Amino acid sequence: MRRLMILAGAFWLASSVTAGAASDADKRAVLETYADIAAAGYADSLASARTLDAAIDALIAAPSESTLIAARAAWLAAREPYQQTEVYRFGNAIVDDWEGKVNAWPLDEGLIDYVDAGFYGEESDENLLYTANVIANQSIKLGGRTIDVSAITPALLEETLHEADEIEANVATGYHAIEFLLWGQDLNGTGPGAGSRPHTDFDTDNCTGGNCERRAAYLEAASDLLLSDLSWIAEQWAPGGGARQGLLEGDPDAGLAAILTGMGSLSYGELAGERMKLGLLLHSPEEEHDCFSDNTHNSHYYNALGIKNVYSGRYRRIDGGIVEGASLADLVAKASAADDKLLRQRLDETLAAMQDLVASAEQGTAYDQMIGEGNEAGNATVQAAIDALTAQTKAIESAVAALKLSPIAFEGSDSLDNPSAVFQ
Fold it and tell me: Which contiguous run of DSSP H or E holds residue 234?
């Protein structure tokens, strides 16, 4: 995995290896829809990233409160289509191998820019770049070497800094690096408020935070690299692309297994476990996904919606257009109407629980406050969403059995399977 996945276990499914009742033609029609939704989702992610890039260019050209607010709004909008694509990670190696370039988290933000030591800490024996502050320095030390970082370019971020020293917390690229640069640290702990970086951090004439020109250069390089990375993955799912062809030309049962692996792994180990239960157990905002912007409620909601998209074979594009076709739900319903009904119900229950997170945030209690120690109501709201995801995963397990596929291993998490290990 390309993000910090601590304490991961495994959630195993068991089912028959007998071929299902659906024909190969039926199965391939489902895979076509799945690929079409991926193509549309990544194309929408790229389009919204282009809008974000333009907003970043405007911020850099004329730093002001309004251009900073516009850039932040564009970042938030860009998250909506991208988060719906994360269900493609698990089961599709081409996506999982790539994903860490654009959505890795948590990150040691001291690698990139200044931080408040009172909310961050000092040196780290495990990560020598914990407080490297590339923006403030022309060179940094790593493994006894002096690395020239005088020119901040996409190549520097991607080839030298990202996951430097093979440490996953050295996140130098992607959505969360951009998020940090637009919002800055969230210094509020589990209290109200997100990051509050001033626009003058990018204003070379009235510079706050120091190194405003280099900070703008880093933001621009990260945005350029995000566009490049999203362009590449969009091409993989477009007609003739490697991901699409590999899926459609392979064993159709393996393709169905890829869909179900993505659904189950994102539901259970990744979302219910690493992104939600771990932070709730620790009551730690450091485990919050969109931690600088306080956008985690939306991030989780759109992850859940992405799971429903691939099961139902239907995706609403950012322009309102609908991509739909033969679905996994069709196959499951043909094999077992009861299992299809159950899974549809569980998917809707999960979305309702995620909507409760959204409603809480919109009413003034953000996700990092919800997981705070002593916030019984907030903790209960988060736990309800975790419980819904767990129940949803069991329904996905039943769908696998109904389709009579080979056994599938979902991603797991000790925060769900062995909570005591979290505190060891």
Answer: helix 212-237
